[in-house]
Amino acid sequence: MRSVQKEARVRTAISSLVDTEKMKQLSFFQADLTRANGWANEMVGADSVFHIASPLGTGTETEAELVSIAKNGTLNVLRGAKIAGVKRIIMISSQAAATARRSVGNLKLDDNYWTDMSNPELVPYYISKVEAEKAAWKFAKQNGLDLTTLLPGGIFGPLLDSHVQSSNALVSELIKMSLVPKANIEVTDVRDLAAAMRLALNTPAAINKRYNVGTTPTTFLKIVHTFQQDGIRSKKLTLAIPNGVVKFAAKFQPSLRQLLPQLGVKYWHDSTRAHDELHWHNRCWQETMKDSATSLKDWGIIKTRR
């Protein structure tokens, strides 16, 4: 953790799902992705490392800022693992590292597809994810590490406490807004992603491979309509915002900039390899989004009514 003062809060959140004896096996140490120190000593004796964190940003960061944190942070973790003698690494990348141009149309992207870095539609976050994953593969190859990367879509699902991450903050906004961008999204349930991490770790054939781990694509409009049908959202009038308006508004509203690569997209990522090789199973996006919204309600973060 960047600050071990958060340990008590995290323990409380996790203990609601983990029995007392297993909680005794959980320990914490202080480290920061932006700093090289603090990793290797604490990894000694570990069998494997899951590298999960990467900055999403607010839309105001420059490409150089996000790339620096994501890429160098990844290398800090992998260098620490190398020094500590840990060979097995599971890294959470993103479908952002497998982004096509809108012009490709209705195309199925497999696990080996990489983002075209010359694509002018990319935003800094997408570029940072590509740079971080490519750096991981290069370092792993040069240093004999057994790497697997998982590429989720937007990560949603129930909360462990009242601290709202960026994805579920989007759910809160979709419940409230009347004007909705015509953006596509591929959903990954946080519970399914956790399962994929463990399955990848326990599957020797997963070494040196990438895996798409998302659901079939949907749209923000369909998600909003599902919320209305389930009584999660009380607003009846929902209008789609033309893509041109979203692009213009994004010049002044940083939070909209992350949506730009998803406007007008028809391609999707194929998760067949994860199903076949990892024996991974995922929830449908309707269940995930409903559970996300219900969790926000249960924690008192949003109020819903029919």
From TrEMBL:
Transmembrane segments: none annotated. Keywords: Oxidoreductase. InterPro entries: Epimerase_deHydtase (IPR001509), NAD(P)-bd_dom_sf (IPR036291), NAD(P)_dehydrat-like (IPR050425). Residues 17-214 form the NAD-dependent epimerase/dehydratase domain. Coiled coil: none annotated. Belongs to the NAD(P)-dependent epimerase/dehydratase family. Dihydroflavonol-4-reductase subfamily. This is Dehydrogenase. The lineage of its organism: Bacteria, Bacillati, Bacillota, Bacilli, Lactobacillales.
